[in-house]
Amino acid sequence: MPTILKTHNLTKIFPPAGFAPHKKRKSEGRHAVDHVNMTIRKGDIYGLIGRNGAGKTTLMRLIAGLMPPTEGTMTLFDSTELEQHRRRTGCIIEAPGLYGNMSAPDNLEAHRRLLGITSSTAVADSLEAVGLSSTDRKKVKHFSLGMRQRLGIAMALLGSPDFLILDEPTNGLDPRGIAEIRAVLTQLSQEQGVTVLISSHILGELSKLATCFGIMREGMLIDEFNREDLETRCQRCLKMVVDQPKKAAMLIETLLGTDNYDILPENTIRLFDYVDQSGFVNRELNQNGILVESITPVGQDIEAYFMSKMGGEDRA
What we know:
This protein is an alpha/beta fold. The protein has eleven helices and 14 strands. It has two domains: about 5-230, 3-Layer(aba) Sandwich (Rossmann fold), CATH 3.40.50; about 235-300, Alpha-Beta Plaits (2-Layer Sandwich).
């Protein structure tokens, strides 16, 4: 797959409070983004996860060109000509700027003129993409929060971008609004081939939407993985260490009637059935000549896994 975004040691350091540039005083400052190496490929819906203060919004601002990096480089669409290729990028970082006394089409028309977009169908196409074509002349101040969020996405879509950057687009939404945003982004990805970078605190919903994930902690990108990796990591199983793994595997098939297991190095077997019956499994293997050195249920739900990876406490 072609690479949409690749960063190399991307770093943003903010000076400490009270720092005076004219003073020749050495200070490291705060690493809001700390040597991040991220890869997003065409067609990805990349879920960026981290607690408040982890650096997600700052990283998105660097990618969108809204602030310069302190160190590091990046490529967009396999090119170092960033300004040229940012024209193929749409972004909504933090709250979209909307005029409450104007309709959705008028908001988009004002934004279209500001951006210098010449397409005569840009407004209608963007409204259609997010399901707001039928709002007519209804003023935005009367929109639900979910509708306003969808209108913000429509603003980001005005230039028909290939890459969409969205910072917390589901923040504050009820379950229906979240489902609407998820449907919009899934359709954009699957039907129009738009690549999406999205951050969210709603981890369960993000796991349903994203195809790959990056976890940030204290400014660092500590892990990247795809949805299949996530499902494997979170799958519940009985993890057993036995003295004869091949014989134990045969007994699992004959005595327990399942082949839903795998054999790992160091005499370890993972059994994906009977997860809540460790005593029964232990007894059956022991009675048939297998020494079970340890048997432990492992695995957790996806949200708990994300929380364990993010670590730390929330910061404003």
